[in-house]
Amino acid sequence: MTDPLFPLVARVATGGLFLAAAAHKLAQRRRFAGVLEGYKVFGHAAPALAVLTPVMEALAGAGACAPVAVVREIGLGICIALLVAYAALVAWALRRGDREIDCGCLGFSAKRPRIRPAMVGRNLGLSVFALIGFAPADPRPFVWLDGVGLVGAGLTLVLLYVFLDQLIALPARNPT
Asked: Cβ distance 89 to 52 under 8 Å?
């Protein structure tokens, strides 16, 4: 048994990430369809997937944050499956040598669309982090300090995600 704050943070952070990603993709459906076309695996299904993917992300993200255990577990499981699928998609494109495409991640790579191997690791790391949401929790009651911990952990995770995203986007250094 673990402290109930740890699985809660993992579920809310994962769900929040998917809700934010879904909102961004829905707001820019045409651009996201172009991103999907760049992977060269979806064919004529890219426009439909540009709508279906963020809807699925929104439902999974909301589910991961739901108060009902079975809904939470299904939502979190779908989030993890999507993270692994996204990692596989990027890995497949890298294997083909297609590096100059947009990852389709939160925020899209507006200035320099380019996928990198670190994105595969990031998505797999996020999926492992999300697994914490399934950890059995001690049935202790929540207190006000747990709310402070949840907000603090959430802000820290957002900053960590942004930092890692910026780190991944740095241009490669050529040793001389």
From this structure: no
Name residue, tokens 């963020």.
54
**Cα atoms found within 13 Å of the Cα of residue 20, Cβ hemisphere only:** 12
The pTM for the full model equals 0.89
Beta bridge mates, 2: 137
* Distance from C-alpha of 164 to C-alpha of 149, rounded to nearest angstrom: 22
In terms of Cβ atoms closer than 10 Å to its own Cβ (0-12, 13-18, 19+), residue 159 is: exposed
In sequence order, what are the residues at sequence separation of 6 or more whose Cβ sits closer than 8 angstroms to the Cβ of residue 97? none
**Cα–Cα distance between 171 and 112 in angstroms, integer?**
9
Q: Exposed/middle/buried for 26, CB within 10 Å: 0-12, 13-18, 19+?
A: middle
* Nearest-10 Cα torsion for 133, 136, 137, 139: 140
Point out which residues pair with 137 in neighbouring strands. Answer: 2
* Two structure tokens written together for 19: 């809700």
Distance CA 28, CA 110 (A): 12
Average pLDDT along the chain, 176 residues, taken 10 residues at a time: 92 94 91 90 92 97 96 98 96 92 73 82 95 93 90 90 80 57
Question: Is 115 strand, coil or helix?
Answer: coil
